[in-house]
Amino acid sequence: MTITASVDDTIQQITEGASDGATCAPELAAGPWVFDLQPPSYGPGASMGDVIPTGSPRQGQLPAAYRDASGDELHRRIVAAKQTLGDRVVILGHFYQRDEVVQHADYIGDSFQLANAAKARTEAEAIVFCGVHFMAETADLLSGPEQAVILPNLAAGCSMADMADIDQVEEAWEALEALYGTEPDADGRVPVVPVTYMNSSAALKGFCGRHGGIVCTSSNAETVLRWAFERGQRVLFFPDQHLGRNTAKKLGVPLEHMPMWNPNRPLGGNQATDLEQAEVILWHGFCSVHKRFTVDQIDRARAQHPGVRVIVHPECPMAVVDAADEAGSTDYIQKAIAAAPDGTTFAIGTEINMVQRLAAQYPQHTIFCLDDVICPCSTMYRIHPGYLAWVLEGLVAGEVLNRITVSDDVAVPARLSLERMLAAKPPVAAGTQAG
Ligand code: SF4
Predict the structure, then answer these.
(1) Would you say the CB of residue 96 lies under 6 angstroms from ligand 1?
(2) Are residues 211 and 264 in the same domain?
(3) Domain encompassing residue 265
(4) Where are the alpha helices (DSSP H) in 221-276?
(5) Of 36, 293, 421, 425, whose CB neighbour count within 10 A is largest?
């Protein structure tokens, strides 16, 4: 099965009644500027009416010249502006970004791959990050001081990252210090090591840097948790409970030693006695996109496609990861598909834009999304081509719009936690040599 229509085209068709498919929110067919001016929330496609925290950057109204332009016109303007800017600009497109935007990207990848790609393009004065807010912050942490990182739509946040804010994490830390103290045990292991997923604000990465903690990605979460257990008796893992639980379970941590921390309740909603035996304290956060995948969808895929290979992202709930054949990061999923023998059928549990792109890229396989309802990452989807054209034409005119900067007091410890991650090495497998 080869799918060529973009997710945006499909949503437009469903909304017009020209397709009998389903979308999680028909309002996605409207321009994001319709929602950007409303009280801050993530709008259509976001689960549980996710609310953007107070103090988050607000996107002003996109000028009418961009709101009213057709898709073809925006495409031409983006191409022309990019050509004029040449090497002065580099455009980064996340795997989950819509096709109409990602086709203009110089690099496509996950957030960390993209931030590293930006780092290598030292000649670029501007890095236009077509992803979400925390990704642009990471690019700013890793890029040169004279390079401007631009997020085309400031309303493109990440609902998961926003489920843990710095004040809540500081409060949780104080409560845990009061409970466990601050003294290391006889083996020199401190009471708690904070671990933050890459999908978090720079402030949380900075928090980890200041408190002996570390950052992880979905590719290296296992290595990072081992690193943390070498240095601490237990881990405070935020913001994604599912990645934390799935990884810790793989390392053999029993579920009853993984209490959840709800920041709105005293002691995170736990009894002090439950926290005594905790090995991984899981923050009450999740990804609105990956939470949608279910075991029923896997059962249905297996019934309809005998022999199907089911791969899901580790941000999916534990029951889904357990029921799948494999779980892995976007990079893992892509490599698994590339390495499979022709004619393999894949059911994939990750964001729809990436799955459809993989289906088009590997026509020798049958590749489909486990969830048959079209539901993109609605926050990343807010980078409409109109915003991309606007920031690029701004650069042509000498104006840097929507620059994302991380202040030094946050950036210095945040880089430290990233450096610790890069230095953390997986254990050498028996029979192999390090080299
Ligand atoms: S897919 Fe989920 S974790 Fe990724 S940016 Fe979107 S909301 Fe955030």
Answers:
(1) yes
(2) yes
(3) 162-287
(4) 221-231, 241-250, 272-276
(5) 293
Q: Is the pLDDT of residue 31 over 80?
A: yes
Which amino acid residue places its CA nearest to atom 5 of ligand 1? 158
Question: Any idea what the CATH number is for the domain that residue 297 is in?
Answer: 3.40.50.10800
**Residue 18, in any domain of the structure:** no
Radius of gyration of the chain (CA): 22
For residues 36 and 97, membership in a common domain is answered with: yes
Spatial distance between the Cα atoms of 40 and 46, rounded to a whole number of angstroms: 12
Q: What is the pLDDT of residue 433?
A: 37
Give me 208's structure tokens.
Answer: 């980890």
The confidence score (pLDDT) of residue 48 equals: 58
Which residue's alpha carbon is at the smallest distance from atom 8 of ligand 1?
Answer: 158
Summarize the annotated binding site for iminosuccinate as residue ranges: 94, 111, 197-199, 218, 313-315, 330
Model pLDDT, residue 127? 96
- Tell which of 352, 374, 396 closes a domain: 374
Domains held by the chain: number: 3
**CA 376 – ligand 1 centroid, Å:** 9
HSE of 182, CA atoms in CB hemisphere, 13 A: 7
Q: Is 223 inside a domain boundary?
A: yes
Tokens 């090495």 belong to residue:
425
Please enumerate in sequence order all residues whose Cβ is within 8 A of that of 253, keeping only pairs 6 or more positions apart, or say none.
Answer: 279, 280
Residue 302 lies in a domain: yes
Q: Which atom of ligand 1 is nearest to the CA of 287?
A: 2
Instruction: Tell me, yes or no, whether 419 lies in a domain.
Output: no
The answer to whether the CB of 330 is under 6 A from ligand 1 is: no
